[in-house]
Amino acid sequence: MSAHRASAPVRLARLGAAVLLIALAAVVGGRLAGRRGGPLPAAVEPPPADRVVDVKERVRHQEFRDGRPVADIRGASFFRGPDGRNHLEGSVEIVNFDPAGGTASRLTADEVVYDPGSLRFTVSGRVRVETGGVVLEGETFDYDKTAGLFGTTAGGRFASQAARGRAAEISYRESAGEVRLGGGFRVEIGPSDRTGEGLVLQGDAFTFERRERRGRAEGRAVLEGAGFRGASAAVSFVTSPDESSLESAVLEGEAAVVFGGPATPGGGSGEIRAERIAVAFTAGPSGPLSIETSGGSSLSMRSAADRAETVIAPAVALTFDRGSGRATWSASGGIRAGITAAGGASRSLEGAAAAFDAAGVLGVTGGSGRPAVADSADVRIEAFSISVATATGELSASGGVAAILRGGEGRRPVGFFTAGEDVSVSSDRLALRTETSASVFSGNVLARQGTDTLRAEEIELAGDTGRMSGRGGVALTLTEAAPGRSGVRTIELRGQDMAYRPDTRTLTLSSKASAGLREARLEAGTVSAVLAPEGRGLGSLTARTAVVVSKGRFEGRAEAASYLADGERITLTGAPVLTDGKGGSARGVKLTFDLADDKILIENEGPGRATTVVRS
Q: Is 382 within 8 Å of 414 (Cβ atoms)?
């Protein structure tokens, strides 16, 4: 039966008005104003119980304005049921047209029910609403025309060109273009033809204002995509203009983000926790571009299969490279970081700020009068700036370096210093090179163990056996107990360069080398000192090339010299000459300075062999 002819009964005209309201209930924005101005039909008494009255079959209502179609409403039948309500049922379809004649919205369902004269409608049975680029589906929906609200509490689905979702509760407010989901929801963001490349948002409740492109999820909210998963009490987000991806998201309340994994280019992965985490996304369906945190932040990152880095700080910022997939980060406000390598070796770092770059270098800086600190089982380092290459473990430090090289059983020896005790070193710069097992201190170096000291422009410790070298004005001070005497004996060794061989316990100084020995001074091209085997102290000494020994007003010159600590004697050989500072001189085959007895002995060989003793 057709309901569009001018001679239709009044009741059928009322049906057309009611059905038009249902069309408006399907979130069709284009034709809403056109029918609100007309009078509402008067209330009708309900029919007798158990009866269906006023039945119309094969209903169709078409509306025209200025000669163009406005709406087209169809249904298998219309009647007023025993409940006193109007029913349009059976393949219900309501289409609204835009000014150009195209479809503005469409509703299909099995049944539409409403009270006569009411502006509230119930749509049920395979409901589908298409309007404003959004599709709503479910078994039953209610529409409040006055509030402009369309929703269900019986479960449903919605979709747009680039988003899909389902929830136990769905509502759509026409005036604001606002979607609300409740009772537990799941939303997928991204083109439907690129499954697995978009983002999924889940939680208890969801609000999205399409016109503002802003939304919020609450209650155990989870946001995840390829190589990315975030969870928190609430998530606020902004979508791209076409809703195909997120531009940004803010996770608040015990927030946590897990990123990377085996599928991530570069292989990096990690987890970050904070009270608040802000995530920025790239255009298109992909993972995050950057992450920024605030409030009790902690980051755990595995930059490679055999190493991991951690950092605790008030604020952390991560950036992901789209090409390599590698993550770089920075932290500020006072940080504590750690590096764990294969085999369990670890190093902790502290400072005012830290940064991890694309080359895998973790840098820490000090601030407010406090240095950065790097600590491990073998060494503690303080400096203004400390950098560690996480792949190799190599470390560099600069700016007021102060290091403690820990001694003890199983520790790496530190040159000629006693292995069982700590050695402190200060310098301008430090480099620990793991590939060659070398430690290089440079710039105003001072190494100290008890009263023993070593100064140089540069000191290098090489290998695991205790080899040591020095360059640039090397000066050593060795102190030992004086045998048979009270107090101590101090020996000073100097040279431009130094080398220490642990197998022979020999210190060799070259280029303007010298030794200070109990009121005497020895100078030579090269000085080699053999340290006492039991620990601190000098066992013996040899000197070569242009040897000069000075004691008081006496000076001895020769090509070579030797010194035995037990006898405290310096012996010069190789055409020795003794001068007294007053123009007198003596020659012999051997010249001995007896430091203990304060004597100088000159020996001659041949027929007139004799020994001359001079009190020094």
A: no
Mean pLDDT of all residues belonging to the chain:
84
Per-residue pLDDT reduced to its tens digit, 317-345: 998 887 776 788 999 999 999 988 766 67
Per residue in 219-249, pLDDT (tens digit) is: 999 998 877 899 999 999 998 888 888 899 9
In order of 79, 138, 224, 305, the CA distances from 220 in angstroms are 46, 25, 13, 31
Q: For 418-449, what is each residue's pLDDT tens digit? A: 888 999 999 999 999 987 889 999 999 999 99
Q: What CA–CA distance (Å, rounded) separates 530 from 149?
A: 96
Please report, in angstroms and rounded to a whole number, the separation of the first and last CA atoms in the chain. 142
Looking at the structure, do residues 57 and 116 belong to the same domain, yes or no?
yes
> Which pairs with CB-CB distance under 8 Å and at least 24 residues apart come from 197-200?
197/225, 197/226, 197/285, 197/286, 198/225, 198/244, 198/245, 198/285, 199/223, 199/224, 199/225, 199/228, 199/245, 199/246, 199/281, 199/285, 200/224, 200/225
What pLDDT does residue 535 have? 58
Domain boundary among 154, 170, 188: 154
Which amino acid is present at 462? A
CA dihedral defined by 333, 334, 340, 346, rounded to 10 degrees? 170
Reported residue count of the chain is 616
Pair (4, 118) in one structural domain: yes
Q: Are residues 492 and 614 in the same domain?
A: yes
CA distance 142 to 124: 9
Q: Is 192 left (phi over 0), alpha (psi -120 to 50) or beta?
A: alpha
Most confident stretch, 283-287, 484-488, 535-539: 535-539
Q: Exposure string (b/e) for 512-524, b if CB count within 10 Å is 16 or more?
A: ebbbebbebebbb
* Structural domain total, the chain: 3
The pair of three-digit structure tokens given for residue 598, joined into one six-digit string: 């304060």
246 and 125, same structural domain?
A: no
Query: Token pair for residue 139?
Result: 């078994």
Q: What is the secondary structure of 366-399 as a DSSP string?
A: -BTTB-EEEE-SSEEEEESEEEEETTT--EEEEE
Phi, psi (degrees; rounded to nearest 5) at 474: -75, 135
Answer whether residue 50 shows pLDDT above 70: no
What CATH number has the domain bearing residue 508? 2.60.450.10
Determine contact, residues 261/273, Cβ cutoff 8 Å. Answer: no
Domain housing 166? 162-295
46 and 87 within one domain = yes
Q: Which of 295, 311, 335 is the last residue before a domain boundary?
A: 295
Chain segment 1-13, per-residue pLDDT in tens: 333 333 222 232 3
Q: What is the pLDDT of residues 513-555, one digit of tens each?
A: 999 987 899 999 999 999 887 656 788 999 999 999 999 999 9
- For residue 495, which of 520, 518, 519, 525 has the smallest C-alpha distance? 525
